[in-house]
UniProtKB/TrEMBL annotation:
Domain of life the protein comes from: Bacteria
One Pfam family linked to the record: GH3
Domain GH3 C-terminal positions: 389-494
Protein name: GH3 auxin-responsive promoter
Annotated ranges, domain GH3 middle: 297-362
Transmembrane segments: none
Length: 507
């Protein structure tokens, strides 16, 4: 009898019932008030007169009228840089003990995003909320006695001046509460190994000693890790060594393109739960099994705003035009792409995180990530979001019964005009021309702007097939393997030329 598992499951069920229904709109009003109150005596708070806003009956409106939008470069150059010069109380009281290093999907140079103790606590509290939400999923009691393998970045953080630096997954894992350490795998010693290949080799070596019930990490790196475990132990599938594996919490990128190749490594179905942990905070998680949408964490350290996505509002460098209108949670609707703006307990204010989202349920504050502001493919007016590209790719995989875990593309100019040029990572033998036609047909059917573009400047689709490993090696050369690293789905022509040169050298 699983006494511990039944006890934990019972506590989760009772706690979830006690917490009851939430009110996301009211939560957000209170979060903004708390943020302004806490930061009113900082240099940023004084500059934008937070104390006056707190006494304004139209606080939310005044906040967005008075405080401009910031992308990373803007807020770093104007404000966060002062932290590195030794100043305190800049955009948040005190000085942060951590900085999250993030190259995102657009470059090799790292951003340094402040992570305060309040943010670490907020991430921990959001994680607890996600655990409590497991009561909505029909999981057996013995699941709650198994381990969770978290494949993030190294927890061996780098000391720099008076703070520690690392990727957000490494910072979070290094601050895991003591009560959770017995469930956490691969454990502190292995998690501190910086070299990703060496860390995965150690995981594969120890895999038989663990009873893993859940996996957590970015799909591409999770897949590679599972393949190494399967290869090391000469298995047919991962359930032969981890028979109690029942849950995979994905994050960072859409799971759709990886679903087929991921399932091929399984011996039986697992529950996939999406999460949205960014370098700037824990933003959302899937709270119920009836949908794959994620619930915004509206009561825990982050105030959200939403800018209706319009190419006219997005500047060439990916930042927002200051005249772009923003909406609060009470004003949004379903079926509309929004640019996500956040203000946080780490001192990010009206910050362009770079993602676009769509609401699937406003009342529940549930969203889907639809793409990146820099990754909307709009060179010739096609206005394609990453989720539309993912959907088209899934149709290709279904039609030809193949796995394509990685891809990238560019609206590339040839002598006779622009072509959407796709590189697909797959080991399957497939006719690129047939794939190109299927992609073209699927996108025409799904997007009227694409159809219009195809009748004008966009001449067609070209497809090139390469080994999936080339994508991982590209990341290794340009960024780093593992952790929070994600492949850029859409490239500009300059970056794409570098990619094509890299591919040529690998062949």
């Amino acid at each position: 009898m699983n006494i511990i598992g039944n006890f934990i499951k019972g506590v989760i069920n009772v706690t979830d019932k006690i917490t009851g229904e939430d009110n996301p709109v009211q939560d957000q009003q209170e979060i903004l008030k708390t943020l302004l109150e806490t930061a009113k005596d900082t240099a940023f708070g004084k500059a934008y007169k937070f104390d006056e806003m707190l006494n304004d009956e139209h606080m939310q409106q005044t906040f967005k009228n008075r405080v401009p939008y910031f992308d990373y470069n803007q807020i770093n150059d104007q404000w966060w840089q002062k932290l590195h010069e030794g100043q305190t109380d800049v955009t948040w009281p005190g000085r942060p003990d951590y900085y999250a290093l993030s190259s995102g999907t657009t470059g090799k140079s790292s951003k340094r995003i402040p992570v305060t103790n309040e943010m670490i606590d907020a991430i921990r509290q959001a994680g607890i909320k996600q655990v409590l939400a497991l009561s909505n999923f029909d999981l057996p009691a013995d699941f709650f006695e198994t381990g969770i393998l978290m494949l993030g970045s190294s927890t061996d953080l780098v000391e720099h001046n008076d703070h520690l630096e690392g990727e957000i997954s490494g910072i979070s894992a290094s601050n895991i509460p003591s009560w959770f350490s017995g469930y956490y795998k691969p454990g502190k010693e292995i998690a501190q190994i910086d070299d990703w290949d060496e860390r995965v080799a150690k995981i594969a070596e120890k895999a038989a000693d663990w009873d893993i019930g859940a996996l957590s990490g970015i799909p591409s790196w999770i897949e590679l890790m599972l393949k190494e475990v399967i290869k090391k132990h000469k298995l047919n599938n991962i359930h032969e060594i981890w028979p109690n594996l029942k849950v995979y919490t994905s994050g960072g990128v859409a799971f759709g393109p990886y679903e087929k190749s991921f399932n091929a490594l399984m011996g039986k179905p697992v529950t996939v739960i999406d999460t949205y942990l960014a370098s700037e905070g824990f933003i959302a998680f899937q709270a119920r099994p009836e949908t794959d949408a994620m619930k915004l964490v509206t009561d825990n350290g982050i105030y959200f705003e939403f800018v209706p996505f319009d190419p006219d509002y997005i500047l060439e460098d990916g930042s927002l035009a200051q005249n772009a209108p923003s909406l609060s949670l009470s004003e949004v609707r379903t079926g509309q792409n929004y640019v996500l703006i956040i203000s946080t307990v780490s001192g990010a204010w009206r910050y362009l995180i770079g993602d676009t989202i769509e609401f699937t349920d406003v009342e529940r504050a549930e969203i889907k990530i639809t793409g990146r502001t820099k990754f909307f493919l709009n060179t010739v007016g096609s206005q394609l979001s990453v989720n539309k590209l993912d959907d088209a790719l899934q149709e290709v995989m279904h039609t030809f019964d193949i796995e394509i875990p990685e891809y990238t593309l560019c609206a590339k100019k040839y002598k006779d005009g622009f072509y959407h040029t796709w590189y697909l990572g797959t080991t399957a033998t497939i006719d690129p021309k047939k794939v190109a036609k299927k992609l073209d047909d699927s996108l025409k059917e799904a997007n009227k702007n694409y159809t219009v573009a195809r009748s004008k400047a966009l001449k067609g689709v070209k497809v090139f097939i390469v080994e999936p490993e080339i994508f991982y090696e590209w990341n290794d050369v340009n960024k780093k393997k593992g952790g929070q690293v994600k492949m850029e789905r859409v490239m500009n022509e300059e970056k794409f030329a570098q990619w094509e040169d890299f591919v040529d050298k690998q062949s």
